[in-house]
Amino acid sequence: MDSNRAQMTVAEKIDMPEEATAGPAGPVLDGRFSIHLSQRLSDFESGVNMVVQATDLQDTSAEYFAVVSNPYSDFRYPYAQLLKENRLPGMIELMAHGKVRFSETDICYVSVFDKPRGGPIYREGEAPLQESLVLNLVVPTVAGCLKFLHKSGMAHRGIRADNIFFSDKKQRSLVLGEAVTTAPGSAQPAVYEPLETAMSHPMGRGDGKPADDIYAVGVLILHLLGGKLPASDLSADEIYKKKLEMGSFAALTEDLALSSLVIDVLAGLLHDDPTKRWDAKTLLNWREEITSAPRRGRGDSLAFGKILFQSEEYSSPRILAHAMMRKPKAALEIIENGRLVKWVKSAVRDEEAAAKIAQIQASVNSSRSDKNAGTAAVTQAIRLLDPDGVFWYRDVSFCRGALGPMLLWAFQKDDTEMKKTLAELLSSSLLQTVTAEEMRGSAERRAEWVPEIVLNSCYDHMKSKQDIGCGLERCLYELNPKAPCLSPLVLGSHVSNLSEYVEIAEKKMSSSNGQVNPLDRHAAAFIMCKSKGLRKYLKTLSSNAPGTADNALAQIKIFAKLQASAYPKPLPGFCRWMEEMQKPILAKIRSRLRQEFVSKKFQEAKKTGSLGTILKLTDIERQLAVDSREYDNALATAEEAERIAAYLEGASQQRKVDAARYGTWITSVLAITSLVTSMIVSALYFVG
After folding, report:
1. d(CA 561, CA 503)
2. Would you say 274 and 196 are in contact if contact means Cβ atoms under 8 Å apart?
């Protein structure tokens, strides 16, 4: 197999993970960890993944749990690699991760973690924790873990009350739970998120920054000391607005009796300006390093005047931006009538932003024929009012770099409206325009956003969205290069490369006697994203309807190429599928003899299990070309024969008299008639 990989020209270089084996104890990962699907562990579950018991075959006294990832979940591979290479203090240990085969086609991505033996530190509805326990055990444990993690440039994005556990049965030490197997921040209650990410979709919060973890620690302290989720009686919108109006510290500590020590710590953690928030090192050593009370955040800065929007006056640009998200039609009105430009210039006193909004106003006024121009204008205006906030477009909102997980979520839920919105966004140049503006001169921003080359590629794919292998499905795999193929044919087999796709598809083909479709829109998008040299076949597919000979031949060629480059083994299931696919091709051959010849050759070549060999031995393309040429010649001959016959039948009475006179003439006519009849029969050989 390795020698074949070196010769690949069509498929991408395959990086195959070590395949798990099924031992006597059941499905096993890394030859060591047995996975028990029947033993659920709900205390460790979050999001869409399932958590079950795992057993160490090398040490039966050890306790582990396994996270079985949903095919649509966003696994954080760089984070997992960091945990595999380093044992972080105070962090739950990742023992192994990879594919586990539960049956021939039931394959899941599984992560095994060391299991805390003392249970979670807090369950919702239980009594509040003592301040000494929180400040002397919880905070140092979390801070020590974050200090190492942040030094590596990564954020945990899963710090919350139900994700901290006692590591031992005597409950003397703690570990911070995992945040590897789900999209960063996706399991966090909205109140745990800072202003920059709070209004995004849970799956669209992005990798975030170390400062986001620090903010979450502040909310964690309030949660544990208060015995309930902070602001639990408010909606996400209400929490966000209250934080902007009062500042996070004031909004979340309102009406709470807290000690001066806790107040000082929270002031350093919950500051709404990330640059003024403590870092992990300061949090770890706050008793020694903090000599005076930290300043408290005050929410959004206020303008020097107010603007009326939907019968309410606003003096905060960020609160106005939030209101505009909720009322986009009214937002478009204050852009078109110039009131927003005037307010930003005179009250916010931001000349640069005002000039850009003026350009947006002029653009939307000159693009009234474009039904999406108004939405794009509102989006751009919101970005100028709140440049650090979420990216909003119609019914979706997400943070920098989080478009990929958003698409995964939309396909998992089969959310038609969300998919429609994301397709519209990717079909426009709006995202490129906004990101280019933000990234100009900022290397940090460039790293946060989706690479421009990927956005441009998705833009091109959306232009050809009607074609198989393009559209939103193609963008899904471009934006999530590690995502498994989500084709119904292989869903649940965690197919991550072309070799695995052909292998699993073959098993499904064999079990169904070839009666399945191996090239639906997801499969085509996945294959095109992972391969090279197949674009010409994609064009043929797009220009010829399903069921036609040209379409069928293009599909056969695609899988013949994939077999040769990615999975050079016999494919009897695909051969059975090919037998069905070639029916319209054979129907295109007019010559019965040639049809029989090709069919016979196919049955002989079918025994090899090689699609390429079948194509070679049947020589189908040349047979089609020759048949077409001979058929055209036969038609021309038949037409000429019919013309001669008509001429003879319409001969004048005089010629018949003359013919009767001369025996030679009669003989000639009979000979010619016989020849014409022979020519017509020859033509009918092709036309049936």
Report:
1. 14
2. yes
Q: How many residues does the chain have?
A: 688
CA distance readout (Å), 56 to 98, 122, 405, 647: 16, 28, 32, 94
Give residue-wise pLDDT tens across range 645-660. 666 666 555 555 555 5
Query: What does the buried/exposed string (b/e) look like for 411-433 if buried means 16 or more CB atoms within 10 Å of the residue's CB?
Result: beeeeeebbebbbbbbbbebbbe
Quote the CA–CA distance of 479 and 457 in Å, as a whole number.
10
Backbone phi, psi, residue 165, to 5°: -130, 155
Residue pair 179/152 in contact (Cβ under 8 Å)? The answer is no
d(CA 34, CA 103): 14
Three-state helix/strand/coil letters over 522-549: HHHHHHHHHECCCHHHHHHHHHCCCCCH
Give the other-Cβ count within 10 Å of 180's Cβ. 25
**Sheet of strand 26-29, all strands in order from the earlier edge strand to the far edge:** 21-23, 26-29, 33-40, 50-56, 64-68, 107-114, 94-101
The C-alpha atoms of residue 648 and residue 604 are separated, in whole angstroms, by 49
DSSP letters of 407-461? HHHHHHTT-HHHHHHHHHHHHSSHHHHHHHHHHTT-HHHHHHSPPHHHHHHHHHH
DSSP, res 136: I
Query: How far apart (Å, rounded) are the C-alpha atoms in residues 557 and 611?
Result: 8
Instruction: Please tell me the predicted confidence (pLDDT) of residue 290.
Output: 80
pLDDT along the chain (688 residues), means of 10: 37 39 68 94 88 94 95 94 89 95 95 94 93 96 95 94 94 94 96 96 94 98 96 95 95 92 95 94 90 82 95 95 96 96 96 95 81 92 94 94 95 96 95 81 68 90 93 97 96 96 96 91 95 87 88 93 95 94 88 90 94 92 85 77 68 57 52 52 48
At residue 166, φ and ψ (nearest 5 deg) are -75, 125
116 Cβ neighbours under 8 A, 6+ residues apart: 92, 165, 166, 167, 175
3 state SS of 64: strand
- Cβ proximity of 25 and 55 under 8 Å: yes
- Tell me, what's the pLDDT at 88? 86
pLDDT in tens, 76-85: 999 999 998 8
Evaluate whether 495 touches 504 at the Cβ level (below 8 Å). Answer: yes
Beta carbons of 421 and 375 less than 8 angstroms apart: no
- Residue 611: other Cβ atoms inside 10 A: 24
| pTM reported for the whole predicted model | 0.86
Give the single-character DSSP code of 11. B
